[in-house]
Amino acid sequence: MVLTSCIFVFSIGLQNLVLTYIQAITSGDMPCMENAVLALAQIENSAAVQRALIHYEEMMKKRVQFPTETLRELLDIHATCEKEAIEVFIKDSFKDVDQKFQKELASQLEAKRDAFCDQNLDESAKRCRVLLQDIFSPLEEAVKNGAFSKPGGYGLFLQNTKELKQKYYQQPRKGIQAEETLQEYLRSKEDIADAILHADQSLSAKEKDIEVERMKAQAAEAARKQLEEMQKKTQEMIEQNERSYHEHIKQLTEKMETERKQLEEDQRRALDLKLKVSNP
């Protein structure tokens, strides 16, 4: 068993092990194999975590084009990069007792995923605001010039708004904030729409009241759809967390099985060597 352990330690970091011994001796401590191996594990596993995180960030930046059309698109890329990062860690990790360092990796990968999700939201909202400003600026200019301050002006305003909304929907790569940013913009213009409505002398008081109720119902429907979208995104994040957990377990189990087989093989070789030495 001692021979097997020494061979294993030698194979993954003899240089670090020697340095640990030298430091212990220099400080006046009497080094022991167990403490040296624990110190080596700390060094190797910390470095493995950092290499895995670096790999994850590099691959995400290379593969993600902001903003993504859906959250699922981003999470699928994350899952691929996360799997590769775990592979990097698993390959280089050593004696990770209680999976302390793998848990740390999982926590940091989750934080980096969330940061990419936030960036995705920001990039989407930024692009959508620029599009809305560009698309709706002629309508805003027409409002300032009084183009809708006449009988029938409200109907004309609604028609123009509808056409511009359609133009906005046709623009590519708006990202996952497309609808929310549009509704935010429209809410900011509700006072203008209301003023045009009440100034339109071609509409009766009853017709205006009906239109006010229609606008309220439309706003309520938009809010309902936004809530559904938020719930959908929350569910997707929950499912992604489960996928991440199972990926960590899967790769850890595979590594443990590989190490078990390697240990059995090393023990067999050590026994064969012992038998040869005792029976020349």
Q: What is the CATH architecture term?
A: Up-down Bundle
| CATH classification, class level | Mainly Alpha
Strand content: under 5%
Q: What is the total domain count?
A: 1
**CATH fourth-tier homologous superfamily:** Guanylate-binding protein, C-terminal domain
Q: What is the CATH topology descriptor?
A: Signaling Protein - Interferon-induced Guanylate-binding Protein 1, Chain A, domain 1
Give the overall average pLDDT: 87
Supply database-style keywords.
280 residues; Signaling Protein - Interferon-induced Guanylate-binding Protein 1, Chain A, domain 1; disordered N terminus; 8 helices; mainly alpha
How would you describe this structure to a colleague?
Helices cover 84% and strands 0% of the residues. By secondary structure, it is mainly alpha-helical. It has a single domain, classed as Guanylate-binding protein, C-terminal domain (Signaling Protein - Interferon-induced Guanylate-binding Protein 1, Chain A, domain 1, Up-down Bundle).
In short:
The chain has helices at residues 2-26, 33-63, 71-92, 100-144, 153-169, 178-188, 190-199, 205-278. It is mostly helical.
